[in-house]
Amino acid sequence: MKPLVSTDELAQNPDWRVFDCRHDLAHPESGQAEYEKAHLPGALFAHLDHDLSAPMTGRNGRHPLPEMADFVRFLEKKGILPTDTIVCYDAGPGSYAARLWWMLRWAGHAQAAVLDGGFAKWVAEGRPVNAEAPLITGTKYKNKPERSRMVALATVERQLKRLALLDARAPARYRGEQEPIDPVAGRIPGAMNRFNTDNVTAAGVFKSPEALRAEFEKAISGKDPKTIVHYCGSGVAACHNALAMEVAGLSGSRVYIGSWSEWSAEPTRPISRSV
Predict the structure, then answer these.
(1) Rounded distance, CA 184 to CA 264, Å?
(2) Where are the domains of the chain?
(3) β-strands 17-20, 4-5: how paired?
(4) What pLDDT shows up at residue 200?
(5) What number of H helices and E strands is found in the chain?
(6) What is the DSSP letter of 231?
(7) Annotated catalytic sites, by residue?
(8) Pairing state of beta strands 4-5 and 112-115?
């Protein structure tokens, strides 16, 4: 399945399963509250902290990757089957939706996509929303994981000089000039930069595949897409870059979910700054 679907495509396929992934890092429960006010018909809710992350230990980042078995149990609780086509959306640009999209692909669920423009575009077009809680029947979900999509901390440490890391944070954070969230400013040594918000237009929809391809090819300096490992602050924006590369036809990149919040939690790990 292609990684992005339009509002028209979703409207024409009422049998597709839909997940609302709206979230606000500053107000973590606001997404659930907005979902309860109004959501796309039939949409299920996925909470970034509770459903798409493991508990924090202070060493494993701000949004650690859950165990595969825990994520599968979440899908079963939501009544998902391996044959379902799943569309993920958030408030608009797609970063939080991309986290669930990437996790579904990691779990081996190929029929998954992100709604281009998200909730904002759907509502702006006058399409229906409601506050009804969908009826859910639990399932048994048998999957074949694609663990190769994920890069663990140990791999980054061991192969630091060989990996092609791509940092999805804002340039000022990448350069180490400021750090509004994590305790330590800087980047993983050797990393390149591609701010994930550059993947979308001012209207909140993804740029064309051609535009994204040209920009990413410049950002990765001609490297093989399969060698690219995305990271960000806590493994959310990194998934947005992974999604954008798929949209651009640059397939095969991987994600280091622990990202800067995990890497910088250990003072002995090397960091770089441009200041």
Answers:
(1) 6
(2) 4-145, 150-263
(3) unpaired
(4) 98
(5) 10, 9
(6) E
(7) 232
(8) parallel
